[in-house]
Amino acid sequence: MDAVCAVSTAQAQGAISVVRISGKDALIVAGKVFVPLSGKRIEKMTGYSCAYGNIVDKNGETLDDGVITVFREPHSYTGEDTAEISCHGGIYVTERVLRLCCENGAEPADRGEFTKRAFLNGKMSLTQAEAVMDIVSAQGELTLKSARLSREGRLFEEIKAVKARLVTLLGELAAWADYPEEDLPQVEGSAVLETIDECMSVQRRLVENYDKGLMLKKGVPSVIVGKPNVGKSTLLNLLLGFERAIVTDTAGTTRDLLEESVRLGDVTLRLCDTAGLRETDDEVEKIGVELARRRLDESVLVIAVFDGSETPCDEDRALAKSLDKNAVVVINKSDKSSAAAVEEYRRLCAGLAVVEMSAVDGVGRDELEGIIAERFAGFDGEGAALFVNERQKKRLEMSIEALESAREALLSGMTLDAVTVELERSAEQLASLTGERITDSVVDEIFSRFCVGK
Ligand code: GDP
After folding, report:
1. DSSP labels for 314-351?
2. From atom 6 of ligand 1, which residue's Cα is the shortest distance away?
3. Which residues of 258-293 are buried (b: 16+ CB within 10 A; e: fewer)?
4. Is the CB of 232 within 6 Å of ligand 1?
5. CA dist 218 → 44, 266, 268, 446 (Å)
6. Helix axes 416-433, 390-411, angle to 10 degrees
7. What pLDDT does residue 256 have?
8. Which tens digit of pLDDT belongs to each residue from 384-425?
9. In DSSP terms, which residues pair with 200 in a beta bridge?
10. Residue having the nearest C-alpha atom to atom 15 of ligand 1
C-alpha cells in the first residue's frame, strides 16, 4: 500500500490537530479511519472537498469526531492524493488517530517526507523545498531540541547500547566470514542466539513502556466483573469517592456500558461496571453481555468481585476460572462474610491478588488501591516521553521483527550470512532512531532535516 501519514501540526495540546495521509492509497486508508456522517465514501470525494464525521477504530468504535479534507492528485501539497483529518487537539487523541492510520496500512512518514514527495512529484524545486525547511525550522528547532532532551534519557542510552551490541556481533560475523585466513575464532551459534535474545528483550520492554506510558496518560482500561448483587456498583461508588468523575459513554452501539475515571494514587483507571457475562436468551441482555465481553478483552486491569457471604455458585466458579494474572480479586461483604466461603474463593483464585473488603463501609479500600498502584508503578510515562512519535515506535518494532527473523534463520540451520542480513536490518532501524543512519542520497540527506509531518 502506498500511503504515508504523520501529524502535521505541532505535537502539543491545541484546539485541533491535523493528521495528513498522502499517497496513491491515501484515500483508501482514510476511508477505513474516517466515516462521514453524510454517508459519502471518502474514495468518491472530489478534490478540495470536506466532510464532517467520525474517526473510528477497527471495531467501529468512535474515537473522535472531526473534519476530513480531500485533495486529489496533482492538486495537493505532495502532488498525490491526500487526506487531512482534523481531529481534536489532544496529544493522545492525535496519536491514536495516527496509529489507526498505521493500522490500516499507512506507513509513518519520515522527516520531511511530504516535502520530499512534493519534490519528487515535480511540485517544487529543491531550492523551494529548502525554503520550506527554513520556514518550518523555527518550530523544527524546538522539536529537535525537545527530541534531543528526551534523547538524553536512559531509554535512549539503552537503544544505543543494544545497537552497539548488534554492531559488535555483526563485526565479528563479518570478520570471521570475510577473513578466513586470519584464523579468527568461529562465532558460535549459541552466542549469536544469546545476543539476539538479550537485544530483543530490551527492545520489547521499550515498546511496552511506550504503550504503558501512553495508557497511563489516558487511563488504564479497567473493568469490574461479577454476578449481580455481589456489590460491583457499591465498589465503583466507593472508588469514585465524593468526587464523581466524568461519566463518558464507551463509544459503541449502545449506551449500556458507562465508563468512569477513577484516580487511585498516581494511576487513573477508566473503569466500567459491567452487567456480567451470563449466558442469556434475552436479546437486549445479549448485547450487554457482548459489550462486557469485549470490554473484558480490552481491559488491562480486571477487578473480579465475589460475595464472601455466599458460597461460590457455578457462575462464580466459571468467572474465577476465566481470570488471568491481570485480575485483582475482591471478596466483598467482609462485614458479614463466612470463613468457609472466603476460603473457597481463595482456593478458586489461587495465584491471584486477593483483597477481602467491605464496599459499603470502605474496609479494604486502601489495600485494593495499594495493589493496583503497585501494579502500575514505575511507569511514569518515561517511555512515552522518549518515543514521542509513532515513527520511532514503528522502527523499534521493525527492529524486533528483524531479530525474530534472524533467530528463526539461526534455529532452522540457515547460513550465518542469512542471519547477518537480518541482524543488519535490525541494527539499521536502531541506528535510524539514534540518528546515525547513513543516508545514501543527497535528497534523503536534505529532507531528513525536516520535521515529521512536513
Ligand atoms: P451489583 O449488582 O454487583 O452492582 O451490586 P450492588 O452494588 O448493587 O450491591 C448489591 C447489594 O449488596 C446492595 O444492597 C448493597 O448495599 C449490598 N452490598 C454491597 N457491598 C456490600 C458489603 O460490603 N457489605 C454488605 N453487607 N452489603 C453490601
Report:
1. HHHHHHHHH--TTEEEEEE-GGG--HHHHHHHHHHTTT
2. 231
3. ebbbbebeebbbbbbbbbbbeeeeeeeeebbbebbe
4. yes
5. 35, 12, 8, 37
6. 170
7. 52
8. 444 445 556 788 899 999 999 999 999 998 888 889 889 989
9. none
10. 231
Q: Catalogue the long-range contacts made by 187-194 (C-beta closer than 8 Å, 24 or more residues apart).
A: 187/416, 189/410, 189/416, 192/410, 192/416, 192/419, 193/407, 193/410, 193/411
Q: Whose CA is nearest to atom 19 of ligand 1?
A: 231
Q: How far is the CA of 308 from the centre of ligand 1 (A)?
A: 11
pTM of the model: 0.48
CA-CA-CA-CA torsion for 34, 50, 11, 426, nearest 10 degrees? 50
Dist. CA 334 → ligand 1 center (Å): 11
> What spatial distance separates the first Cα and last Cα of the chain, rounded to whole Å?
21
Give backbone dihedrals phi and psi of 367, rounded to 5 degrees, phi first: -65, -45
Report CA(231)–ligand 1 centroid distance (Å). Answer: 4
> Which one, of 26, 102, 157, lies nearest residue 398 by Cα?
102
Q: Are strands 247-249 and 258-264 parallel, antiparallel or unpaired?
A: antiparallel
d(CA 149, CA 152): 5
Contacts of 205 (CB under 8 A, 6+ apart): none
**269 DSSP β-pair partners:** 220, 262
Atom of ligand 1 nearest to the CA of 357: 23
- What does the pLDDT look like over 138-165, one tens digit per residue? 333 333 433 443 434 556 677 888 888 8
274 lines ligand 1 (CB under 6 A): no
Contacts of residue 234, Cβ cutoff 8 Å, sequence gap at least 6: 332, 359, 360
Residues 6+ apart with CB under 8 A from 211: 383
Could you tell me which of 128, 142, 71, 66 has the C-alpha nearest to residue 97? 66
User: What single-letter DSSP state applies at residue 38?
Assistant: T
Ligand 1 atom at minimum distance from 273 CA: 4
> From the CB of 336, is ligand 1 less than 6 Å away?
yes
- For 290, the grid coordinates are 457482548
- Tell me, using a 6 A CB cutoff, whether residue 365 lines ligand 1: no
For residue 289, the Cα-to-chain-centroid distance in whole angstroms is: 26
